[in-house]
Amino acid sequence: MESPALRLLQLLSFDAPRSGQEIADGLGCSRAAVWKQVEVLRSQGVDVVAVSGSGYVLTEPHELLDRAQILSGMPQPQRAQLKRVEILPCVDSTNAELQRRELSQQHAVCLLAERQTAGRGRHGRSWFSPLARNIYLSLGWRFELGLGELSALPLILALATSQALTRCGLVGHCIKWPNDLQLDGHKLGGCLVELQGDANGPCSTVLGVGLNVNMPVAKVPSGYIQQPWVDLDSYLPGISRNEVAAALISALVDYTIRFERSGFDEFMDEWAERDALADQEITLHLGERQISGIARGVTRRGGLRLETGGECRELHAGEVSLGQRG
Ligand code: BTN
Hints:
Structural class: alpha+beta
Shape: globular
Largest sheet: 7 strands, mixed
Strand content: 25-35%
Radius of gyration: 21 Å
Order of helices and strands: HHHEEHHEHEEHEEEEHHEEEEE
Bound molecules: biotin
């Protein structure tokens, strides 16, 4: 692991203090350098307490991502489809990092980061990405399909994430079109598909998923996330990030391959089971414009079916809120 702050986090424990000297020996640096890294961790939201005469201790356990653990948690057929899984200590955005690589080096490569400094959300928003708490993941995938045939891909990503959460023992979660993961009406995670290619194929895609795993409210600067949100740990206390990552990568590989082979048809029933909007009054916000109606599921192309004024329209862009406007 490259980052000194992360190496320090690895050395620190939450049940017994480690002396400054012990840590300095472990990191191969001076005690002054240890203190500097303690400050770095604190500035990134990790509570490190100095216990007089004993050293440093964490106020809560932190599980770091572990490549070997993630790979061993994946079934062999899915693991065999991947070229590489990389864990980055800190990056601006895993999606951006993958896109900076040559196209030939993106396919079947999965990047995870402990922290993002410029995590990207949908609609140009930023994605809050504190150190060692959540999952920030991007999978590169090259499709032989053309751009038009990939319109349901964002929904596939959400379905795969949802299935991974079920595998981890979560119940009651659903998807708000096109790809928000929700629990009790609060956002648990989101997906961001970025793609480039040809109308007739091939297309290179970067499939990004962010999941709130262990993010106590006190760790989020007020007003930073502009919608109600939850983390997985509140429902599955002690859930392992490595376990979630293994389940997520496996599901993404599995769903992506099935989608490439057969399209969205075979996922329609699964969508209906997970659809947070089914038969609800909603408003779709398209920039300045708003369209209200009743959500009636999705089409084979991944469009939202919106019943309005007695007819059903298929919509492919915009942001949904519950309820009618105007
Ligand atoms: C949303 O707005 O709901 C989508 C959020 C997607 C966040 C993930 S975190 C990993 C990947 N890298 C990014 O910069 N964004 C996506």
